[in-house]
Amino acid sequence: MGNVKKDFQKILGSVQKPVKGEAGKTGTWSSQKPVIDLNKCIPVKSGKPSCFNCWLYCPEAVVSRTIPPQIDLEYCKGCGICMEECPVNAITMEEEYKL
Amino acid sequence: MTVTEDNKMDIRDDIMILTGNHAAAHAFRQAKVGVVSAYPITPQSPVVEKIAEFIADGKLNARFVKVESEHSALAVCCAASATGSRVGTATSAHGLELMYEMLPWASGNRLPIIINLATRSLGAPWSVWTDHQDFITIRDVGWIQFMCETNQEIYDNNIQAFKIAEDPRVYLPVINAYDGYILSHTLMPVKLEKQKDVDDFLPPITHHINLSDISQIKGIDPVTTPHIVIREEGTAPGYYEYRFSLQKALENSINVIKEVHDDFAIRFGRSYGNGIYKAVETDDTDTIIFAMGSVASQSRIALKKFRSEGLKIGLVSLRLFRPYPSEELREFFKTKKNIIVFDRDIGYGYEGVLSYELKAALYGLNKRPNIKGFIVGLGGRDVKTEHIITGVRRALNDFEQGIFTNKTEFLGLRLDELRDYDESTYFKNG
Amino acid sequence: MVNVMDLPEEEYIYPGTRACAGCGMALIYRIALKALGNKTLITVPASCLTVLHGMQGFCSTKISVYHTPFATTGAAASGILASLEDKGLADEITVLAFAGDGGTTDIGIQALSGAAERGTNFIYACYDNEAYMNTGVQRSGSTPLGVKTTTTPEGKYGHKKNMPKILEAHNIPYVTTGIASYPLDLYEKFKKAKDIYGPKYFHILSPCPPGWGYEPKDTILIGRLAVQTGFWILYEVENGILKLSKPSSRYLDPTKRKPIEEYLKTQKRFSQMTQQEIQVYKTYINEMWIDIERRIKSQEI
Predict the structure, then answer these.
(1) b/e per residue, C88-125, with b = 16+ CB within 10 A?
(2) Residue A90: which CATH number?
C-alpha cells in the first residue's frame, strides 16, 4: 500500500463545506438595489431596536439587524420584498448605477 | 441493553446447528451492528426475525428500524451509515430490485453497508424458489459481491465483509449472497467464534463521513456537475472523478479481500480457496467446471461421479463475483483446455452471466480454452448431478468437434412431458 | 407571541445561494434553522432546496445536510435518528427533514407515513409551493384546483391533498400549518416542536415567483392574502387538540375574510379560472372553516 494515498482514497463521496456566495456574487442578478431612507426608518428614528421587517423578511439574509439596518449589496438579489414590507415606505429600489 | 457474551453463556461458543439465515443473524450480532433496517420477504425474513429476537433479549444493542418497504430499508441504512454507524440489512429478489435506486447511492457515497441476499427468482411470474438472477442483476452498481456455498461460509463472509467494507482503502458496500431455501432454510453446523476474538478481528467502525460529529459541517451528496469547481476556498472534484475513484477502489479491493481472507484463515483456521475462488481437484486435469453457490456444491458430487468412472474433471467455485477477478481467473485458466460453465442465471438476450464474463476475461490469452455455458435451475428447478454430467459430456463432445457457440443451452427442461400445452388453446373447453 | 427581537441574530445560511430572488422557501428555511439552532442534522430530498444547498464541494448552510433520493426523506430521517440513538446522541441533536410538496404528498408519502407510524422523533417540514417547481412547474398532489401548470395546461383537476389531516390520522403529537408570510408564527412553532418528543409535521405554504407567476417583491403579500382570504389556515393540532394560530383566528368569522378573487388575481397561474371554479373555491374555503369551527366547538365540551 505504501505511505502515499492513492486517488481513490482521497476522493470518496461528493462532499461540501460551507462557503459564502456559493452561487457567486448574486448581487449581479439584479440591477435594482434597495436604499433605506434613514429619516423614515423606525429603529433609526427611535434609536431603539424595533420594526426590523427588512431583516425579518429578507429571504437571502443580507440585511443586518442593526441601527441602521445595512444591506449587503454584493449578494442582494434585488427581489424587493424589503421595500414591500417596510411599514413606513422607507425603502425604495434604485437602479444600481445611480448608487 | 448490552451484549454480555462473557457472563451469561446461553449462547455456546462452539458449534451450533443453524440455518443460513440464522448464521447471518449471528454474524450481525457478533459484529455488533449499530443499525439494522429491513422489510420481510421470503426467504430472508428469518434473518431479521432473529436479529429482532437478539435485540429483545439484550444480546445485541442495535436499533432495528422496521420500515415500510425495502426501498426505505436501504435508505435508512444509507443515512444511518453516513451518520456514522455500522449498518446492515437482508433481502431477496424483488426486495433487492426495489432497493435498486439506493444501490448506487450507497456505492457512490462509499458507504460500508452489508446486505445479506437470500437469492430468489424474479417475477413475473411469482416464484419464491432460488436462482441467482437477483444476485447478477445488480452487478453494475459498484457493490462488492460474494456468493456462499455453506452456512459456515455465510457467517464467515459476513464477519469478513464488515472488515473489508470499512477498510479505508475500500469503503464500499458488500452483498453476501446465498441460495434461498437451499442454504437459507437448511440446517448445517456452524462454528461461532468467541466474541473477544471477533472483536479483535473487527474493531469498531471509523467512518469517513460520520455526520454525528456536528463540529464538522458537511454537505453529503449534492448535485455534482461534470466539471471540477475551483474557488478561493478550495477545489472540488467533478462527477467523473468520483466515478473513477469508485472504479479504482473496487479494483483495488481485491487485494484487501485477499488480505482479510488470509488473516481470517490464520486466526480462525477456515479458508475458502484463495478468497477469490475455490479450486477443487484441479491440479491433475485441464477440464474444469465453473460455477457458483448451489450449482458449485452440486458439481462437487458430479466430480466424484466422473472420477469414479475414470474421467478427471475439476471445479472452480467462484466466491468473489464483483469486483470481477479477471486477472486471477486468467492466471488460473491459462493452462486449462476445457471449461464448462453452469449458470443459475441468464443475461436474457445473451447467455449465462458467468459464461460470458469468463469468456471476456480470458479473451486476451494466447491459447484460449474452450468454453461452453449451460443454464440450470432457474426458478428453483432442481439442479441434479445428472444435469451437470450431461452438460460436461455434451460440452466435451462439442469441443472435440470444434464447435463454438455463444448460444446457451437449458438443462433440466421438461418440455417433452408437457404434451400439447398451448396457451392460446389452454382456456378452451374440450 | 414572539417579537422580532426574540429571534437570534445568527444566520445558518450564507447569503448568495442559488434560490430565486424572492423565494418563499428560502425565508422559511432561514427561520426554521434559526429556531432549531446548529445542533441539528438535516435531510433533504430532490427539490429546490437541494439547489439552494449548492453544487459539489461547497454548500451554503452552516449545518450538516444529508441529501437523499426523492422518495426517501422519511426513511433517511429515520436512519439518521437510529444512528444517533445508537451512539447515544439523540438527546443532543435534532433531526430535521425538509422536503417539497412533491417529495411529501406524492413520491415521499410512503416513507413519511412509515416514519410517522413508527413514532420517529423528528421534525418533518414540507414547504409547499404547490407544484414540482424544481423540474419546471409540473402539477403535484398539492397543486390547488384549476391551477395552470406545465402538465395541466387545462387547469388541475381536484383539490390539493390535505396532508396535515393525513398526518393527524397517524396520531402524532404535533401537526401544524405555517406560511412564509408569518415568520414569527413559524419561528414559535419550530421552537415548540423542538421540545416535543415524537413525529412533528409542518406544512408550510411557500409562494414561488416563477411558478405562481408574480413579481418577486410580492411573496410576503401574496402569502398574507392566502391567509386573509381564508384559503390557507394557520393552526396547530397538539395531541389531537386543534388551536387556530393568531394570524388566522379572526377569519373564523366569514365576514372578515377577503374575497378569494383578491388572492387569485395576483398570480398568473390562476389566470384561466372559470367562474364555476371560483365558486368551487368559495365553497371549499367555507367548508374548511365550518370543519374547523365544528372541531373547536366539540373540544370545548
Answers:
(1) ebbeebbbbbbbbbbbbbbbbbbbbbbbbebebbbbbb
(2) 3.30.70
Q: What is the pLDDT of residue A7?
A: 80
Of the partner residues C22, C59, C184, the one whose CB lies closest to the CB of residue A81? C22
pLDDT band at residue C17 using 50, 70 and 90 as cut-offs: very high
Which whole number is the average pLDDT over B33-40?
96
Model-level pTM? 0.95
Residues A22, C26: C-beta atoms closer than 8 Å: no
Give B152's DSSP letter. H
Query: Could you list the residue range(s) of the whole structural domain that residue A88 is in?
Result: 35-99
Contacts 24+ apart (CB under 8 A), B306-310: B306/B389, B306/B392, B307/B281
CB spacing of C53 vs B75 below 8 angstroms = no
Look at residue C197 and give its three-state secondary structure. coil
Tell me the pLDDT band of A98, cut-offs 50, 70 and 90: confident
pLDDT digits (tens, 9 = 90+) for A61-93: 999 999 999 999 999 999 999 999 999 999 999
Instruction: Spell out the domains of chain B, with CATH numbers in brackets.
Output: 15-201 (3.40.50.970), 277-414 (3.40.50.920)
Q: Nearest CA of chain B to the CA of C243: how many Å?
A: 32
Separation between Cα atoms, residue C62 and residue B115, nearest integer Å: 33
Roughly what angle, to the nearest 10 degrees, separates helices C73-86 and C109-117? 40
Peptide bond into B124 cis (omega under 30): yes
Number of folded domains in chain A? 1
